[in-house]
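Aggregate trends can hide what the representation actually does to any particular protein. In the encoding step, the backbone of a single protein was reduced to a row of integers, each denoting a local shape. The record that follows shows the chain in one-letter code together with its fold in token form.

***
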Amino acid sequence: MRAFIQLKRNTGAPDAVILAWILAVMAASAMRIARVRAPGWNAETLALFLIAGSEPGTGKLPVYEHLIPPFRDYDKASHSVYQELLMEQEADMEAWIARKSGLKKLLRDLTSSPHLEDAKKADEVEKLLKELVRRKPKQVRSRRLLKNRISVVQALKALNGGQEAMLLATEEGAKLLNGVIAEDVDLVNQLFDGTEIVYERNYLDLVITAPLVCLCLGIQPGRLSALLKKYALDASVSGFLARFLVAVDRDEGEEPELDYEPAWGDVDTLNALVSKLLRIPDDVGDGALFEPKVLEFDLEASTEFKRIKRALKDLRQENGPWHGIKAFARKAIKIIARLAAIFTIFKDDQSTHISKETLNDAALVVEWYLHQAKDVIVNESQRVAIRHLYEKLKDFYRDERRQGHNAAWISKTYIQRHAHMKVDVLDPLLGIMAKHGMLREDTRNSSRAQYVVLTEKYF
């Protein structure tokens, strides 16, 4: 929280952008060392997918530049270690080839000799040669790489190369929704779930057993709205979009007025914690893989988790606040569990249990994101529909005025036909317009309004 406040004060970036970046770096580092097991579940990855919508020039880049250094350092260190291992492998290979060639030459010389003792030596040399062929030179195991600024296309290429890549993707939101949602949505869903991926492309079969992926996508609000409208069916049917924590800041970021050199102490503290988690080795002992620990809920948290799960189910019923974003509400409980585990690790990276307090902190964050998703998914589509309806009503009003008719009075049947809307879609929109004084519904001749009267000053 202190790091959030400091970034806000020093950059003026939108809240949605700062929060998305902080959660992304926390998740990408925590999921290397831990999984979470909620009541009744198997152990889950801590991966998060986030979309932060904001206009250009609102401060996305300064936030990125202050939170990404630990990942850049990890990349450099990993690359350096990998290069050293490759050099060792190359030297080992050269020594292996030289020894193999020497033994072959010695074997040829000895087998061409008529002496008995040379024949015995030849048997020993042949035995050594067979052992040498069986024991290949050591191979450098592909390291798990963190890529800190990567496009979705590059991410899929990394998977195509068989890497178990951990990804932070920025400023590629439009490309992701425009491309992957149509072509590789199932693959991206598997990345979120951390399940085994069998990937077939260009006649190449790959199995990636433990993909660790965190996505944080920046996108302009207008582009997001257009893409959601275009891909709404794919997004809802596949469950793809519901895996994201979506937040859009519709106001421009405020340029901070600084008359001093800003301090970054709290951001540095957060980065130090991230760096500490990233230093967990990939290998432990004699080539053994590092095994992540599994965090579980303590007794109070388990009870609270079940209560939240029931509440979310109730809240997505027909009259509940999350009915319009049911898919998001279904996925929310899984994301709450992941966030609770991430928060636990950042409080104490030695913890093995999640407390009720931390679980409720995570639930509050996800609740905020659900409100944001409702605004983006439901309210934005409603705003588009109202604009469409308003234009149709305005055209009718002006046409009727030109013909000298009573332009303000219009039947709902006519509106339905010309706006191409069913009554169950039209009625709520007319209700919103009535609430804002743009029209009133005429119920004089029926208990249910059959006509509307337009407020002329708006048309």
